[in-house]
Amino acid sequence: MSNSKFEVIDRRKYDKEDPVPVIIPAVPEPAADKSTWKNVGYMIVLIPSNAGPIVAGRAVGLRSDEKCFIGDFFLPQIYPEHFDWTTEARKRLDTYLGCDCAVGIQCALHKMYVPQWIKADTHRLELIGSSPVPAAVEAMVKAQRASILIPR
Q1: Are the beta carbons of 92 and 118 closer than 8 angstroms?
Q2: CA distances from 74 to 50, 113, 130 (A)
Q3: 63 to 42, 75, 152: CA distances (angstroms)
């Protein structure tokens, strides 16, 4: 080992200005535009449930921030003439414009809306199911049964 000496010169207090912190203002990222649909399509889907599959009309929208959302509307087996399920599904889809929903995360508005939609659709299907079948549909069902079950 050598007997070398060294000297520590502490210059923190001598001839040195305190460093001035450089403050860089945070520039917020511009919020993605969530106000319009780039594209909307419509389809019929089967939604699994405990009572069996439910037929639904689905509006699918690709929002201007590149996120995809759906608006479902449960369809009855028989519905009135001039009934346009696409209008109803689109109303639901349009509630996703401007919302903060993300993959797997619902915003507060949709945490409230989605269960209400399911309840309303279920109630509507029950009412339709308990109402009389139109005479034309009843006649068709009778004719189908007659052609299938021919007595011998």
Answers
A1: no
A2: 15, 15, 16
A3: 15, 25, 61
Q: Give the integer Cα–Cα distance in Å for 107 and 101.
A: 5
Query: Which one, of 123, 102, 101, 127, lies nearest residue 112 by Cα?
Result: 101
3-class state of residue 101 by DSSP: coil
The tens-digit pLDDT sequence of the chain (152 residues) is 556 666 666 666 655 565 666 666 766 666 788 999 999 999 999 999 898 999 999 999 999 999 999 999 999 988 888 889 999 999 999 999 999 998 889 999 999 999 999 999 999 999 988 889 889 888 888 888 887 655 55
Number of Cβ within a 10 Å radius of residue 86:
15
Give residue limits of the domains in the chain.
Answer: 37-129
SS3 121: helix
d(CA 7, CA 94): 74
**Sign of the dihedral through C-alpha 148, 80, 77, 61:** positive
Q: Give me the helices (H) in 1-152, please.
A: 85-94, 108-130, 135-148
